[in-house]
Amino acid sequence: MPGRIRVGYYKSISLLFVTGVFFVPAPAGANTPETCGPGVALKLSAPESAQGGLLLLEVTSDGPIADLSAEWNGRNLAFWQVTNPQSDSKTPPVDLQRALLGVDLEKPAGSYPVSVHVQSAGGKPTTCTLEIAVRLGKFATESLHVDKEFVEPSPEQIKRANEERDRLREIFDQVTPQKLWVGSFRVPLDGVSTGGNFGKRRILNGQPGSPHSGVDFPAATGTAVHAAQAGRVVLAQELFFSGNTVVVDHGLGIYTFYGHLSAIDVKAGDEVQSGQVLGKVGATGRVTGPHLHWGLTVERARVNPLQLVSLLQND
Ligand SMILES: [Zn+2]
User: Distance between CA 268 and CA 25 in Å, rounded?
Assistant: First the structure.
C-alpha cells in the first residue's frame, strides 16, 4: 500500500483564534522530515517555491537504499549520494541522497506533485507523494532600448536565432549521469555576491520580449568570468542574442550559462575546474552595456542561479 504525504498548504488550513487576532500556523513540511516507509524520511528545503526557484529534496534512510527514483515536471529527478552526511541527530543516516527540483520561471502557479519511489535494502517498495505549491514570482517589468536588429531581426537572423535556441534546448535536454561538481557553487565574478534582473518581464524598444532567464552582473569589460563549479564545456561560441557564450555541464541535468563575453578562453569539450577562467566580461550580443549574464537550467527548468549558491554547501 503506497503511503501518501501531502506537504504545503494542505496542512496549514486550520486557523487559531488567539486574543482577537488570527494566527496562521507556519506551513508544515519545511525542514520537517516526512516518513516514507520504515526508516526512510523525505525532506524538502521548502514546501513551496516561487517561479524560477530551486528546491532540494533529501531522502535519508537508516539502512542502505536499494532503489530510488522520483518524478517531477514529467522528468526523473537525478539523485546523488552524499558521502559524508552531516546530521543534526546523534545517529547520522546510513544513506543520504539528494536531488534538485527546478521550477521553471514560466511554470504556472499551482500545486504540483513530486512522486518518490524508495526501497530500502530488504524492504518493500514504497511510493510517497509530496505536493509543492508554486506561486507567481514577483517579477518587475522593465523597458529597454537595444539595437534595432535585436528587436526586428532579418529573416536570416531569425533563422540563426531559432537554430541556436534549438541547439541550446538539445543541450539542456541531456542529463549527464555523473555528478561532475564537488562542493558549493560560486558566483562567477570575484568579489560579487549578488546580481539582479532575474525573471524580469521585458519590453524591448516598446515590444514585449521573453522573460529574462538569468541574473545580470554589470562589470567592466575584461573582468574575469569564472566557472561556478567543475564540469565540462559543452558550448563555447558566439550566439546571436547572448553574444560570446559558454555553457558548462555540471552533470545530473545542471547547466550554467555565461553570456555577452568579450573573449572566450575555453573550447567545447574542455573539462573545467571550479573557479577556472572561462572568458572575460563584455558587451557582445543583445546588451545595453558590459555585463555578465549568468543562467542556470536544472532538468530544462530555467531557475535563478543565485539559489544554487545558497542551497548546496557540502555536496
Ligand atoms: Zn541578462
Answer: 51
* pLDDT at residue 86, rounded to an integer: 60
Q: For residue 12, what pLDDT is reported?
A: 31
Q: 222 CA to middle of ligand 1, Å?
A: 17
Q: Is the dihedral of CA 228, 180, 80, 129 positive or negative?
A: positive
Cα of 214 from ligand 1 centre, angstroms: 6
Tell me the pLDDT tens digit for each residue of 19-70. 333 333 334 444 578 899 888 999 999 999 999 999 999 999 988 999 999 9
The residue count of the chain comes to 315
Helix extents (H) in the chain: 148-151, 155-173, 305-311
Q: How far apart are CA 146 and CA 5, in angstroms?
A: 49
CA atoms within 13 A on the CB side of 210: 9
199 Cα: distance to centroid of ligand 1 (angstroms) = 10
> In whole angstroms, what is the distance from residue 54 CA to residue 305 CA?
9
CA separation for the pair 217, 186 (Å, rounded):
14
Which residue reads 527546478 in cell numbers?
102
Q: Which residues surround ligand 1, an ion (CB under 5 A)?
A: 216, 293
Indicate if the pLDDT at residue 284 is higher than 80: yes
Q: What would the grid cell of residue 224 be?
A: 574575469
Q: What does the pLDDT look like over 219-263, one tens digit per residue? A: 999 999 999 999 999 999 999 999 999 999 999 999 999 999 999
Burial class (CB in 10 A: 0-12, 13-18, 19+), 145: exposed
